[in-house]
Amino acid sequence: MKRREFLAATMGYAGALLARAEETIPATTLTLPPLPYAENALEPYISARTMGFHYGKHHKTYVDNLNKFIAGTALEKLPLEEVIKETASDMSKVAVFNNAAQTWNHTFFWNGMKPGGGGKPGGDLLGQIEKAFGDFAGFKKTFVETGLAQFGSGWVWLVMEGGALKVVKTANADTPLVHGQKPLLTCDVWEHAYYLDYQNRRKDFVEMFVDHLANWEFAAAQL
Ligand code: MN3
User: Fold this and answer.
1) Mean pLDDT of all residues in the chain?
2) How far does residue 134's CA lie from ligand 1's centre (Å)?
3) Phi, psi for residue 166 in degrees, rounded to 5
4) Cα 43 from Cα 37, distance rounded (Å)
5) Could you tell me how far CA 52 lies from the centroid of its own chain?
């Protein structure tokens, strides 16, 4: 599909799409985005060794593969989010989708953590969490249980859908972006995210994410 055909096929949100397409770096020049902190900045909760593999190898490979797959196709002119939406329901492009979505999911994950993060958010976001989950402890319980309930590789997310916050899980590369949900925060529950530091203890890893690393300012900024 040519770029103009794609735009024509998506006239429903063409205004926003065109505006964003002009602002966003085209996927042709997609490079591994820099981490928002040093590789050792999340220690002792996530080791520099894990970050070295997870960011430096796993995330980089998704970016490299994506660039390889879209080179010379109509997709290389599109911003990353549009590549994801364009390929989400096309089984012939599942490898492109997987690498595009994993590229996006990881960048979102890194930005959703910070040294000295975790604990309760403030302001309007806390109010929204209390409305959806009763209290912050209710949110944490739901987030951890949902992360544990994801059988095999995937992600646990805090999302906004239909004006309410929800916790959802996705398998493998799947992302709320293609399910009409607005992601606020995510924790990677693929084994590569925690195995070097937590071995099989996924529950400890997700609890640690909420208690010590969640970047609530980033989450609030998504609202
Ligand atoms: Mn990962």
Assistant:
1) 90
2) 30
3) -145, 155
4) 11
5) 18
- Rounded-to-integer distance, Cα 173 and Cα 94, Å: 10
Nearest alpha-carbon partner for 176 in 197, 155, 193, 194: 155
At 29 the pLDDT is: 59
Q: Which of 72, 69, 115 is nearest to 96 (CA)?
A: 69
Output the CA 127–ligand 1 centroid distance in Å. 30
pLDDT digit string, tens, across residues 42-74: 999 999 999 999 999 999 999 999 999 999 999
What the chain holds in terms of domains, given with CATH numbers, is 3-27+46-111 (1.10.287.990), 123-222 (3.55.40.20)
Peptide bond into 44 cis (omega under 30): yes
Taking the centre of ligand 1 as the mean of its atom positions, its distance from the CA of residue 165, in whole angstroms, is 24
Dig out the tokens for 185 from the structure.
């925060």
What tens digit of pLDDT does each residue of 211-220 get? 999 999 999 9
